[in-house]
Amino acid sequence: MQPAGAFFLKILVKCFRFVPFWLLFLLSDVLRFLLKHLFQYRKKVVLANLQNSFPEKTPAEINRLAARFYHHFCDVLLESIKGLTLPKAELQRRFVYRNPEIFLPLFEKNRSAILLGSHYGNWEWGVLSFPMAVRHEVAGIYKPLKNKVLDNHLNHLRKQWGLHLANMAQAGRAVVQMKNQPCIFVLIADQTPSDVNNAHWVEFLHQGTPFLPGMDKLARQTGYPVFYFEIKRVRRGFYEVVFSELCPNPMEAEAGEITKIFARKLETTIRRNPPDWLWSHRRWKRKRPPTNLPG
């Protein structure tokens, strides 16, 4: 996407400020029809991912899951644009944190934490609103877009409620910068690594799957306890988030162990309600090198 694309996004975001949710979901239904039936957006990828992940399901069941996925995907896509200009009170009403007090004992001891999530539910609303829910500083570790103009514009909007941002290459620097204040470092940890030779490979949804090793390494180096967040759709346009602890003592974990714990937790989340994960992502496009050791 070139600078013209970034300009278009700016206009789109400004226009969506005035779109009520009933109209937003009507547009989502139209978009769903176009993507699924007319353009067949990544149809083969979606069906293959679902079939390989749920081999016990019939073709009819897989097709129903795919149809529900497109419904979810279009809602989240338009909700994410709308969320960039959503008033603070409205965002808090629609995106509710059920147990943010889980982080209070750490804050009172001036301790930091690592929080892992995935492309499940409306993760973009989570990025926006999480700093409102906790007393910690919040730093999001993210993968930058290739278009720097678009990347800078999106990050400016994402930071409006107090979020700090650092790209993956700067994660260590961000930890150093925040060492004197309690901070929660948030990572969307189900992204596909480009370097499969150094990835952590885990059996995930019946398939050998590479995970980024950075989250595991960062936790073991810092000793920050690791938590997980699960986003649950309550109804259209409304979500709730529940936190749980994954690893209280990362320094005692072996290399790859935290990755495996996260993968098991995420798989449980996905199996509970499959359509809310990002099935259009080419998650299994890379194969495991024969020399790669387990975990």
Give a short overview.
By secondary structure, the chain is an alpha/beta fold. The protein has one domain (3-276). It contains eleven helices and nine strands.
Describe the structure.
A hairpin with a 2-residue loop joins strand 6 (200-204) and strand 7. The chain is α/β, with parallel strands linked by helices and 295 residues long. The chain is globular. Helix 3 crosses helix 4. It is built from eleven helices and nine strands. It has one domain. The strands form two sheets. A seven-stranded mixed β-sheet has the order 1-9-8-2-5-3-4, sandwiched between helices.
Could you list some keywords that capture this structure?
single chain, 295 residues, alpha/beta, seven-stranded mixed sheet, two-stranded antiparallel ribbon, 11 helices, 45% helix
Q: Tell me the structural class.
A: alpha/beta
Largest sheet: 7 strands, mixed
Separation of the first and last Cα atoms: 36 Å
Number of strands: 9
- Please indicate the count of domains: 1
Shape: globular
Strand proportion, as a percent range, falls in 15-25%
**Fraction of residues in helix:** 40-55%
Q: What topology, given as strand order, has the largest sheet?
A: 1-9-8-2-5-3-4
* Count of alpha and pi helical runs: 11
Computed CA radius of gyration, to the nearest angstrom: 19 Å
Write the layout of secondary structure elements.
Blueprint: H1 3-16, H2 21-38, H3 43-53, H4 59-83, H5 88-94, E1 95-97, H6 104-108, E2 113-117, H7 123-133, E3 137-142, H8 148-158, E4 164-167, H9 171-177, E5 183-188, E6 200-204, E7 207-211, H10 214-222, E8 226-235, E9 238-247, H11 257-272
Parallel strand pairs: 1-9, 2-5, 2-8, 3-4, 3-5
Antiparallel strand pairs: 6-7, 8-9
